[in-house]
Amino acid sequence: DSFVATSSKVDVSGKTDTDATIKINNQLVLVSDDGKFSGEIEVFEGTKEITIIATSRSGKQTKIIRDIIVK
């Protein structure tokens, strides 16, 4: 299922390992000491997905893609 955005800004949050780095649509996001992260991204009409990439200290990447519909 796609997320429907009715605003030009979308809050994205989650939890990861404390030593991981997170990028949401290529924007670096800070990870707190307990592994939680959140970021606000701008979306535009025509934006089709949000991509979250977590990179561990050893370089292993995990990618999550969420479909989005901007109205």
What does this structure look like?
It is built from no helices and seven strands. It has strands spanning 3-5, 9-15, 21-24, 27-29, 36-42, 49-55, 61-70. It is elongated and about 40 Å long. The chain starts with a strand and ends with a strand.
Which secondary structure elements does this structure contain, and how are they paired or packed?
Layout: E1 3-5, E2 9-15, E3 21-24, E4 27-29, E5 36-42, E6 49-55, E7 61-70
Parallel strand pairs: 1-7
Antiparallel strand pairs: 2-5, 3-4, 3-6, 6-7
Concise synopsis of the structure shown:
This protein is an all-beta fold and 71 residues long. It is built from no helices and seven strands.
Low-confidence stretches: none
Largest sheet: 5 strands, mixed
Q: CA-to-CA gap between the ends? A: 16 Å
Reading side by side through the largest sheet, how are the strands ordered? 1-7-6-3-4
Provide the structure class: mainly beta
The shape is elongated
Query: What's the helical proportion of residues?
Result: under 10%
| Number of DSSP strand runs | 7
What integer is the average pLDDT?
94
Pattern of helices and strands: EEEEEEE
SS field, number of helical segments:
0
